[in-house]
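User: I want to check something. If I give you two sequences, will you return the structure for each one separately, not as a complex?

Assistant: Yes, each is folded on its own. Here is the first sequence with its structure:
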Amino acid sequence: MFKSNDAQAIRQAVVDGIGVGFLLQHEVADNSELVELFPPLAEWKVTHWLVTHGDLHRSAKVQAFLQAVRAKTKCE
């Protein structure tokens, strides 16, 4: 099994045929040897990211902020 947090290492492993993985479409557009297993799902599309430290993710402040963002984006 191959695991990495390095996107470049993951891309190279997939290109080298070590296994399957998630790659950006524009990164592999020039490689005709790669095969798309399934198209991106609509629910994978995100317009916002909230990055927090793991210890803070469930904090009241972060959760309140997420609630406010969710409420605002549902209205628009």
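And separately, the second sequence with its own structure:
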Amino acid sequence: MIRSITKQKPEEELDELLKGANRVFIIGCGTCTTLTRTGGEPEVAAMAESLQKKGKMITGRMVPPVACDNMTAELYEEQAGHIRQADVLLVMSCAFGVQTIATQTGKWTVPAQNTIFLGKETGIGRFDEICTQCGACIIGETGGVCPVTACHKGMVNGPCGGTNNGMCEIDSQKDCVWTVIYNRLKKLGRLDSMRKYQKPRNHLGEPSPGKFHIPADE
């Protein structure tokens, strides 16, 4: 299960972002931030209580099923009056949700979170980054393991000289990803892939801002 991993902005930054706004409508997300407990019902309620103590008026709050999808007409209509009354929308979702809501409502919209990375649940309450979306994927040569993401140094030719008994020199509790890659390729009988020199990374695999068009049916 892949999720956008977010972390609430520092209180001082939020206070600055909301400066001059007296009436606030709060929006969470029923998917990613609910699962990571950064923007579900309990967190939205806690945020409302916190802002009320600072003298803000909460015109309303809601947690749509998926904040990065356009709100359904029914849901928007249900909350439209409360949204119109607000000076600002405080969105407790990933950046995708913030942008979607800002576009759909046309209101002053403020993110309550910093979006950290795309992560996969690897244990109860644990999410590990699995892809930096660099646009230059080499996992076909590394046994399906991404060194760009999993290596602290982002090395595409490894291991570095600091690996120690298969552990990372930067985080001694973490397996060196190049050891993981070596063991995976050895098991697959494809160690020759590891000997292939990878050219320096293209840090701009897709000109920014990225665009993708699905080809029309012929």
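Because they were folded independently, the notes below concern the second chain alone. The first strand starts at residue 2 and ends at 8. The first helix runs from residue 11 to 17.
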